[in-house]
Amino acid sequence: MPIRTLADVVELEKTPIRERLTEQNVYERLQKVANRIPDRLAFRSLMTGDTTEVPRDVTYREFIRKTTQAANLFISLGIGPQDVVSLLIPLVPEAFFALFGAMVAGIANPLNPMLEPTHLRSILREASTSVLVAAGDPLSPETWSRVDALRSGCPTLKAVLRIGGTGAPPPGTIDFESALAGQPAEYLIASRPSTHDTVAALFHTGGTTGRPKLARHTHGGLLLTAWTNAITTSDDQSEIVLAGLPLFHIAGAIILGLTRLTCGQTSVLLTPNGLRNPAVLRNHWALAERFRATIVGGVPTSLAVLLDMPDDQHDRSHIKLCFSGAAALPVEVANRFQARFRLPVCQGYGMTEVHGFATVNPSAGECRPGSVGLRMPYLELKIAEVSPEGEIRRFCETEEIGHVLMRGPQVFAGYLDPNNNHKMLIADGWLDSNDLGRLDSDGYLWLTGRAKDLIIRGGHNIDPEMIEQVLNRHPAVALTAAVGCPDAHAGELPVAFVQPRPGQTFAVPELLAFCRQHIPERAAVPVEIFLVPRIPLTAVGKIHKSALRREAARFVFTRQLAKLAEVGVKVQVEVVDHPKHGTLARIVVKNRGTLDQKALEERCRTLLGGYQIRHEVVFAGTPR
Questions:
Q1: pTM
Q2: In the sheet where 129-135 sits, what is the strand order?
Q3: Distance of CA 504 to the CA centre of its chain
Q4: Which residues, 6+ apart, have CB-to-CB distance to 522 below 8 Å?
Q5: Which domain covers residue 511, as residue numbers?
Q6: Fewer Cβ close by (within 10 Å): the C or N end of the chain?
Q7: Count of the separate structural domains present in the chain
Q8: CA–CA separation, 66 and 69 (whole Å)
Q9: Is 540 domain-assigned?
Q10: Strand (E) or helix (H) holding 336
Q11: Same structural domain for residues 325 and 409?
Q12: What is the DSSP secondary-structure string of 5-57?
């Protein structure tokens, strides 16, 4: 039954979940699909992104055999149901063999190879990792160079496996592909009776700079998420999906991974670096045409890059769906994408803590630009007023902004460290996303901001506290606050407001150099620092970050609109709270210069349309 409206979601929910999910674990479902369509291609893997590259093809028969061998390899290394296999692997078929093999033998833990070694070591220690699987030099030299440091920092580690290496593996290391070949592919060497409640994976979340938290994913949560994500997008076996998101992100592992595999679809793996590979974006439409892709998509930054590419003449008539996730997609980018490529962009919204998409614009229904769509079946979603202590004060009315709360079997089993559950898992089983939004009368969710202070740069979370801790160590700094500043490409970039100590002076370049030296993650280094006489505080003495975010946005928009001065236009930018959009940039026109009203509105739309924050142009009392 295709999902078109919220009424369709409600109708689906009349059937109990247990009747929908007959399999007890992920492996059972994958095995059933592979047995039904053994000769269909599960993956077509590219290494360079060149349009003439011969892909490596993997059938469902080979996929399930290799997954079974991976599970047996891990079992032979002593992995049991409570043991963790951590994975530092880019986007290649072996990543999926290892991911799902680890879920069969024990618990899979995909890692972000871009994290600094200190953060990776902290994850390995918290997870009590027993086996580490990492990409070898030819596949990812940067990843393999970190293995020795990780090995020495994890006392529970029993074995290290290398994927994609050449020659004999280094001492103390096992070659993954060779070891796989020595394992049975038709059966498991030890029974693993996982159920819906069994923990299958630990996905880290919490940003590229703050101490990562490990979210526990269950077999039941993964199966339900894969099914609901499929029926709201497409569960047609004939789909061919361009997959370019990394394994450590739920979008890559679950939405574009498990979801597609449980439907028997074919995924084209867009090189080990995925959408981070410039060749993949440069050749995106050529690759889509060559492989006759029916589903494409990515994060807002990659869609914006595609818009900036020169015009092409590639056939896109076979493409049915284009999705966007990981961060808010500016409405103007969605509209421009649809106008240029004649493809509506269905935006979704999800979290690591709900296994995947929580909402999505239904592919069979109305796609509303700016909205993140309807809730998934069996996942309750409400908007509420929540106290700073995490108490639900009341549920909000239609179109009223509040915290986005979710409840249901897709909600994760909590963090590995239960101390991290505070203010996230709140009363009566509700998960507080700490995102702000509103529900319209048709059940579509519209995100309006964040109650938490995370900065989201190109879909990656950055904890502002790390930036603030470094800046506050500078002897001339009295107080500092880091916030996200609007950016048309990355969505947000980190900036910092700094209040100097009395009598102290310093130059901004000096502070930026200090940040580059001491902030461990390059992505978290502020792109700009604003010196202010006093950091604004709330009535209870806390830093007023929402005011600083508005000020950062005002600065960016004012600088962007300064380009209008060449035609005599004078404007004033005000960034204000808005009951519908959360934040709104109001462009007050003081002088139109040589432009008429329509032309000026179009220029503003061109200059500001790529930003997530909405804007309006006000002409009241404007002199000519």
A1: 0.80
A2: 173-175, 159-163, 129-135, 84-88, 107-110, 199-205, 213-218
A3: 41
A4: none
A5: 455-535
A6: C
A7: 3
A8: 5
A9: no
A10: helix 331-341
A11: yes
A12: SHHHHHHHTTS-HHHH---SSHHHHHHHHHHHSTTSEEEEEESS--TTPPPEE
Question: Where residue 42 sits, what CATH number does that domain have?
Answer: 3.40.50.12780
Distances (CA, A) of 196 to 199, 217, 589: 8, 10, 59
Nearest to 269 by CA among 85, 574, 41: 41
| Most confident of the following: 59-73, 128-142, 356-370 | 59-73
Task: Tell me whether residue 346 is in a domain.
Answer: yes
- Residue entry with tokens 């709900």: 354
Q: In the numeric block, which tokens belong to residue 418?
A: 């239960």
**CATH number, residue 611:** 3.30.300
Asked if residue 259 and residue 355 are part of one domain, the reply reads yes
Burial tier of 559 (Cβ tally within 10 Å: 0-12, 13-18, 19+): exposed
Residues 409 and 481 in one domain: no
**What's the number of CA atoms in the CB half-sphere (13 Å) around residue 87?**
31
Classify residue 543: in a domain, yes or no: no
Regarding whether 563 and 521 lie in a shared domain, the answer is no
**What residues does 88 pair with on adjacent strands?**
134
pLDDT on residue 176:
96
Alpha carbon 70 to its chain centroid, in Å, reads 27
Report pLDDT digits (tens) over 281-319.
999 999 999 999 999 988 877 887 888 788 788 999 999
Q: Does 514 map to a domain? A: yes
3-state DSSP assignment of residue 68: helix
Question: What is the C-alpha to C-alpha distance for residues 141 and 589, in angstroms, rounded to an integer?
Answer: 53
Rounded CA gap, 273 and 593, in Å?
47
Are 413 and 367 within one domain?
yes
Maximum pairwise Cα distance, the chain: 82
